[in-house]
Amino acid sequence: MRSLRHTIADDLRSQITTGELTAGTRLPSEPQLATHYKVSTPTLRNALALLQAEGLIEKIHGKGNFVRHPLRRLTYTGGRLTPDGDLHVTIRTTNLRARGHLIPLLKVPSRALLTEFFCVTHQGESPHSLARIYVPRDLAPAELHWHRSGVSQSRDRVSARLPTPEEASTLRISSALAVLSITRVSTDNTGRVVEAALLVLPSDRTDALFDTHHVTNEKGQEG
Amino acid sequence: MRSLRHTIADDLRSQITTGELTAGTRLPSEPQLATHYKVSTPTLRNALALLQAEGLIEKIHGKGNFVRHPLRRLTYTGGRLTPDGDLHVTIRTTNLRARGHLIPLLKVPSRALLTEFFCVTHQGESPHSLARIYVPRDLAPAELHWHRSGVSQSRDRVSARLPTPEEASTLRISSALAVLSITRVSTDNTGRVVEAALLVLPSDRTDALFDTHHVTNEKGQEG
DNA sequence: GAGTGGTCTAGACCACGAG
DNA sequence: TCGTGGTCTAGACCACTCA
Fold first, then answer.
1. Which CATH fold would you assign to the domain A74-209?
2. Does the nearest atom of strand C lie within 7 Å of A77's Cβ?
3. pTM
4. At what angle do helices A30-37 and A41-53 cross, to 10 degrees?
């Protein structure tokens, strides 16, 4: 026997995925839905929490619950988001000094001069992803370019976690919706770190792609 | 003002991380904790749900709530988990025919002969990760080797999601704890798919590492 | 001020695990 | 059988949004 909240979530989910409830639509209020499904409001709210964690609805305090726009799934590959047709990025530039985890990440001394680019990517009207990009001040371009010159190697560390409250509100996602957290460190051919990027990508709208070329010898061992 | 459940979760979290509550310990029962914190049982359970989603505790129906063993964080890199010192893997081998999403994934005709290796990795006593590895029958080894010969290229598609109920129970994690889901497709130098691996890695115990080497010409454009 | 979602209470009843 | 966690009820009260 499936629990009440799952039964309700299943019903609403099918209405959303079949298009019976279209994107942007406001759902009936929680008391109304509770009456309709003949459950108490906590139970109904539990059902909505399931849909929220799946990224299907967006809860806005004082306004209502809304069907989320099903944005096209983007791919993070080669350090960029693709396809990037209708993406626009807003960037805030800040000068600061190295501290905390930035010191080992960029392999710079404490209080070294850095430039931070704080980027928010929008897909249409909706915020899609966040990036904090750190560059040593002497290498920092006046404007951030996605194609950085002088990079010979990059390392991407990928993990999944729940968003911080700030990330959740900036991206307008549930704090129960996991994000891909990618730390990308790029070095030049001398081994100097020329850029560190901290990326936050909502799990329902992005996946990451990595290609590896293998070199094998006659014995089938990696070289 | 921080909500009650967050305050309680913060208190229990600090007790766990400082070692005041050691791994494997059973927490007091939920009614006892509710009395201690002077809250109702639903509120106390909400607090525990936060810790569960962080992977700090494990709830076992009919037995109690237990502090989870803080396993060393493993890294998935080059298609393998490292360090693999105390990992052991149990494998179940099944013969089957291609259907559904396996057909485009392995680029084989419908009902093509395949071998599935269903792997569960254990770190000490605790299950760590799951893998479903598919190989065309004519290439399938009698025993699965982590070093596959004849692979010239691999592509890893990484996403984050909540585990299925089966995955959550096999890995003994909360269904609210996100997992890294990696689909790794390996091809030989003719372009034939020789292996497809579907990996499920708990987000609190694993991250994934990818290195990229860039080739740049004099103009700083990628080549 | 009216309507919305957010949090919390104080229970009831069911399902699971172990003796 | 007993103690555990799992689900649900029927409210109360607070915080936010908008007219």
1. Chorismate lyase (3.40.1410)
2. no
3. 0.87
4. 110
